Amino acid sequence: MFRSIVLVLIVFAGILSRTCPADDPDQTTKKTDIESIRSEFEEVLIAKATDFSGPTGTLVRMSNLAKEKLQADDRFNRPVREVLQRYAEEQPADPAKEESKADATDLKIALELFELTTFPPDQAAELLFATILSDNHAIDHQERNRLRSLLSKLPDQTSQLVLEALRRGEQAPYLFWLTSITGEFSEGIAAELLEVAKSNDPERSRAALESLANVIDSIERRKQRQTAGLVSGTGEKYLAYARRIIGRYDRNQDGSLTKDEFESMLVSPEPADVDADGKITVVEYAKLLAERNSR
Hints:
This protein is 64% helix and 1% strand. By secondary structure, it is an all-alpha fold. It folds into three domains: 41-90 and 102-152; 154-228; 230-295, EF-hand (Recoverin, domain 1). It has a two-stranded antiparallel ribbon with strand order 1-2. The longest helix has 27 residues, at 202-228.
């Protein structure tokens, strides 16, 4: 009898172990393995995506995969910095010589990977600024546009570097091109450009005047956004629309609308006149448009 009971218990335990298995130790191993694989995948991909000595085709594919799958990582910093510094510091090639007409694929990819780097803003701006000001002919207009686009995301740091370069008399041809990136130091840039415009150097004077016109516009638009409390991108949209509408109805061209000027508008802008002075300015109208759109 006792044997029968023991036998039944053994059989029951076997059935129970099959139907309700304990935690599978392999599951823990698998979890650890995939985490390890993920970590190693990132490490290998970063190495391949920044191997600028490797085949161009592989480098392009790996950099595209890195941009798709990876977050910013300080392991991108060193290789990207090395490429940009090389283009910034190399002696300019002779554009007339065939061997100097490189496609600069490594620079193109380094710029595409730049947003995966973790440089502090001031270091990022200095690195990009030195590269764009280089007169190395291997850097073509497409790469310079990309450099400018990256610098435009660092307006305060860029405007400071531009101001310092103007004050030390920097002659780089692309310097004036960067003056329209409006940041904290743009009013100082405007003052420096005015001095250059007054100089006896006809070429630089002309370039400075052209740049100054854009800088003044950029500073005024920035101040309008700040006054209106509007964010940069969206705020510019509302301000541009407000300028266009006011310009359409502003008969005396004083830059604002009075009641007799806006009474023919389909939607009255009168609520924009918050200071009740009888005039609606561009900033007041832009704020009204933004408020209406947020409802």
